[in-house]
Design brief:
Elements lengths: L8 E6 L6 E7 L2 E5 L2 H7 L3 E7 L2 E4 L4 E7 L2 E6 L5 E6 L5 E4 L10 E6 L15 E2 L2 H8 L1
Parallel strand pairs: 3-10, 10-11
Antiparallel strand pairs: 1-2, 2-5, 3-4, 4-9, 6-7, 7-8, 8-9
The structure holds zinc ion (2 copies).
Length: about 140
């Protein structure tokens, strides 16, 4: 089920208050949903995340607060308005950004659901996707 993404898209957005402007030029249109406890606590719901790589330009970066949510990643948000901006892998610097930040992207498709075993029983998506448990995710990304 894993298909190689050859085409990336580009997007531009701002946080709610406008003090941060983000341009990402290599966004993969297939996105993931993460049901882990940390993502749900951070955003109040599963985290719909776009892989944006490292080709990301941020204006107003001094307004970003970075929180080290694990040994391997930071979560960034606007210090003024609180808009969630990214999950960034420390080792590679790769950005994963919320799908909802970008209002006009086309061709998006939910591809995989992470931490499916931490998904609470009060919701489920009908999208046909690959699902990975906590153990599978940790094995895959280690
Ligand atoms: Zn803001
Ligand atoms: Zn998560």
């Amino acid at each position: 089920m894993s298909e190689t993404i050859s085409q990336t898209i580009s997007g531009q957005t701002t946080c709610l208050c406008g003090s941060i402007k983000i341009t990402a030029t290599k966004i993969e249109p297939n996105f993931s949903a993460c049901h882990c406890d940390t993502c749900r606590k951070w955003g109040g719901a599963p985290y719909f995340s776009l892989r944006c790589g490292v080709d990301v330009n941020i204006e107003g970066a001094e307004n970003i607060t970075r929180y080290e949510s694990s040994a391997w990643a930071f979560r960034g948000f606007c210090s003024s308005c609180g808009t969630h901006l990214f999950y960034q892998i420390k080792e590679t610097g790769e950005y994963n950004m919320p799908v909802g930040l970008f209002l006009k992207l086309e061709g998006l498709k939910m591809d995989v659901q992470y931490y499916a075993d931490q998904r609470p029983d009060y919701y489920c998506f009908s999208n046909a996707t690959r699902e990975m448990t906590k153990a599978e995710v940790e094995r895959y990304f280690s």
